[in-house]
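Late entry, evening session. Most of the bench is empty. Finally got around to the prediction I had been postponing all week. Sequence below, unchanged from the version circulated by S.P.
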Amino acid sequence: MNSRPPAILDFDGSVSGIERATVLPLQPWQETIRFGCRWRDFQRLASLLAVRLPADPGCVFTGSGDYHHLSYLLLQRVTQPLQLIVCDNHPDTMRYPLGIHCGSWVYWASRLPQVRAIHVLGICSHDISWRHRWEIHAGPQLRRKLTYWSLDVSTRWLNWPGRRPDPHCFHDADTLMARFLSQLAPLPVYLSLDKDVLSPQVVTTNWDQGRFLPQHLLRLIRACRGRLLGADITGEASVYRFQRRFKRWVSALDGQPLADPAQLEAWQHQHRQINRLLLAEITPALAAPDPAR
């Protein structure tokens, strides 16, 4: 049996039904960390996790996709050279001048020395289109450290004029995943799964969603078996009303859906089923714990 049991960073109470999980109750941090936060608060949380989270946890669940920037803290704990593979409907390289937030963390991950390459798979969001060119950090892609693998949204505008059509833009998820896996480098992997990459016919999340099905994520996990250094899952259905006016305003701009308790429970039931399905593949795919840690 893999000796790396899963962990839950429990900010919003949205994750349950995970057997053998280490649960860290973090509800008092919800207002401060959710969606985005200042660097000093982020580092305070990092110091807490350094003490309370096992050095080599199994798959880490972080709750709503509003907490996807926690992946950056988890990546910081891994010192071995790796490639970061993210499944997400958004690029998460957006500019955010007030610190770090759930839509900017991939940019900061690109600056970590142990992260040698980043692939973001399944983007349907027009956040990567030329209309939003001033909102994203283009540097990591221009330096060929970051590659977006998208569905019907091209980043050809980032290339020099006259280049051929975007080779990483596809019309269907099957072709995208097959092409990516055919080019998968032999480097160790850190895998971050945001369930907003999944079709809304599979689960309902707090964000606009993509077109992946569970089979695409399972195929990717199996391809990483034995060299998966770490993994996290985010994108749970979660409802929260911010106390701070600025965060209430920003979350309203995102159009996050609200739900009554019965509807929310139905959404979270869908997520529990998907989480068990993904975890059953991730746990045996994880590499053995690092004996030096």
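Two things to note before I forget:
Residues 239 and 260 are 9 Å apart (CA to CA).
The longest strand covers residues 115-123.
Will write this up properly tomorrow.
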